[in-house]
Design brief:
The chain is of the alpha+beta class. The protein contains 5 helices and 12 strands. Helix 1 packs antiparallel against helix 4. Bound molecules: 2-acetamido-2-deoxy-beta-D-glucopyranose (NAG) (3 copies).
């Protein structure tokens, strides 16, 4: 084929342009797909960890009847402030490792509060305090709280409940950060005033923390078994916490890279076909050479 220098260069540049465009589209398309399908970057992942939960042996129980309210707690100062309502209690506390993984996962708690006339109690508020520690991804130590409120129209003398402590987070955890500042005591034993004893305020302060725990009750039953006093029996499981976190750079990069390669492969194939089609059908002028063969060998 006879071609002038000028037309040779336009032919070359047109063919080159096709090459450049198809290559660009091939490698860019995965990014477009990623853009319209939420991106390569994983913003959040979850994992579960059996947190180390420890009952602090601290509790506050408020027992409300039609006319009287009784209080019993592990805090000397609270019992003193409410000396008229205070009733002494006997506690039996066992923390068990039922699946034998070295971390306790069950609390069996029995609180017997004496000095309460039989059959008077209809409402119970109970606060139990724990320390929970996470250490797998980041270090997080928190004073965690389990709150139960239960009402029963029929006057009773015993409350049984089963529940589970679950992790609540408003912020995602970040890798290898030690989170301090969540282990402060909700109630300062040596400095309890009446205002600090406002349960509504305690609960609101607690629930607005970035990280906290919540008691989910599965089962509550009221009974009428005792001749005197009131008994609370609890089975509380320390279930593995489900934690959501922001993946660190290399974890994100690894998944991003895999996704990029996987979406790139079909585009390589498709654009190669398109390029062959364009050149084979002479949609752009090309110099006489066997393009099919050239592309296949490239
Ligand atoms: C709970 O944590 C507090 C504050 O870090 C600590 O003073 C206390 O001894 C811990 N209690 C238990 C039972 O681990
Ligand atoms: C508890 O209160 C006492 C007395 O006000 C104070 O000295 C102490 O630092 C407080 N403890 C905590 C953990 O806030
Ligand atoms: C290009 O090469 C292929 C495979 O070798 C052959 O079948 C075809 O005839 C060739 N085309 C031209 C235009 O030379």
């Amino acid at each position: 084929m006879e071609i002038s220098k000028e037309s040779f260069s336009t032919i070359v540049s047109k063919a080159t342009l096709v090459q450049i465009i198809t290559i660009t589209l091939t490698y860019l398309s995965p990014f477009l797909i990623a853009y319209f399908t939420g991106g390569f970057w994983i913003k959040e992942k979850t994992f579960t960890e059996q947190a180390e939960v420890k009952f602090q042996y601290r509790f506050i129980a408020l027992l409300e009847g039609e006319t009287n309210t009784y209080i019993s707690s592990s805090y000397e100062s609270i019992n003193q402030i409410y000396s008229n309502e205070y009733r002494p209690s006997v506690r039996t506390i066992t923390e068990l490792d039922t699946n034998e993984d070295g971390i306790n996962d069950l609390l069996e708690l029995s609180i017997f509060i004496s000095g309460i006339p039989i059959d008077t109690i209809t409402n119970i508020k109970l606060i139990l305090l724990f320390n929970s520690t996470l250490s797998a991804y980041s270090k997080l130590k928190l004073e965690s709280l389990a709150y139960l409120e239960s009402y029963n129209a029929k006057k009773s003398s015993e409350l049984n409940f089963d529940g589970e402590i679950q992790f609540v987070q408003r912020e995602k955890l970040r890798e290898k950060i030690t989170y301090n500042g969540y282990s402060y005591q909700l109630l300062n034993e040596s400095n309890i005033d009446l205002e600090a004893l406002n349960l509504d305020k305690i609960m609101r302060d607690y629930n607005s923390r970035e990280y906290s725990t919540r008691l989910i009750t599965d089962f509550v039953s009221w009974k009428n078994t005792l001749a005197e006093g009131f008994r609370i029996n609890a089975h509380i499981r320390y279930a593995p916490f489900t934690i959501s976190y922001v993946p660190a750079f290399w974890e994100q990069f690894k998944w991003g890279w895999i996704q990029y390669i996987c979406s790139l492969i079909p585009f390589i194939y498709v654009f190669k076909r398109i390029k062959i089609f364009i050149f084979e059908n002479q949609l752009v002028p090309t110099i006489s050479m066997n393009i099919t063969q050239k592309l296949k060998s490239s």
